[in-house]
Amino acid sequence: MLFLVIAMVVLPCGCQPELERFNRKARPMHQDVPHLLCATCKLAVEEMVELAASARKQTPGGKVGEDDLIEIGERICDPDTDEGEWISMYDVSQDGKGRPLKLEKQEYLGECRRECRTIAASCAKVFDEFREDLAEVLWKDPTVGVERLASRVCSKWSRVCPANQVPASYERRDEWWMPMDEDSFKMREMEKQLNRLSEKAGSQPVKFVDPMGGMMMGSDGWDEEDEEWADPMSRMMEDFAGHMGAPDEEL
Fold first, then answer.
1. Which three-class secondary structure string do you get for the chain?
2. What is the pLDDT of residues 6-42, one digit of tens each?
3. Taking the CB of residue 46, how many other CB atoms lie within 10 A of it?
4. What pTM does this model have?
């Protein structure tokens, strides 16, 4: 059973620090960001073009204002929004030390843990500066292609493509990719719907907290120094595999 707690509820002082730990977003792996900028930029531009086309289909006359496109651009890098949920479908991988970092699309949405926040940070590093310019191009030329637009944004403007070569000594710490279960998906959709209403009303956002979520993330998934961090889920899986492979104890 999934227990939901609304973070807006007033709790005794002693409970607040623990609730804040569950409520905080995972930290990006900042050392990975420079190596993901090019790939993330191209994917974000593709998503932006698709969302703009979808918005035109839903608008009478097929016309979408520049402000509407800027609003899409403001959310494209936020995995907690509909526009940015594409980020949750990608896993970060590396084939070995010194090899390029890759974004591998998964079949389902995943839990937004450290790698998800790392992709989001890579996206924001480009789009925070160029989202208005991108929106202007899409507004003036609705037929612009993805490749042409990606070349302009990722190569000409931000110059994050082509990607810089990964140092021969660089080896990232991987994080276990977790698909989002049905209960988590329902909780997330309910939260997004309530927050859209809160945004329109100008009221405080709502945040649901799954008490088990912090346990699955691990407290060391939030505040640790990057070089000391190890994914708690990976440790659990390694321990499980070790127990499964261990010989039976003699009676």
1. CCCCEECCCCCCHHHHHHHHHHHCCCCCCCCCHHHHHHHHHHHHHHHHHHHHHHHHHCCHHHCCCHHHHHHHHHHCCCCCCCCCHHHHHEEEEECCCCCCEEEEECCCCECCCHHHHHHHHHHHHHHHHHHHHHHHHHHHCCCCCHHHHHHHHHHHHCCCCCCCCCCCCCCCCCCCCCECCHHHHHHHHHHHHHHHHHHHHCCCCCCEECHHHHHHHCHHHCCCCHHHCCCHHHHHHHHHHHHHHCCCCCC
2. 444 334 444 544 445 555 678 999 999 999 999 999 9
3. 15
4. 0.74
What angle separates helix 33-57 from helix 114-140, to the nearest 10 degrees?
A: 50
- Domain positions in the chain are 5-242
Phi, psi for 136 (deg, rounded to 5) = -65, -40
Angle, CA of 72, 6 and 12, to the nearest 5° = 135
Regions of the chain where pLDDT drops below 50: 1-14, 16-19, 211-225, 249-251
As given in the structure block, the two tokens for residue 28 are 């990006």
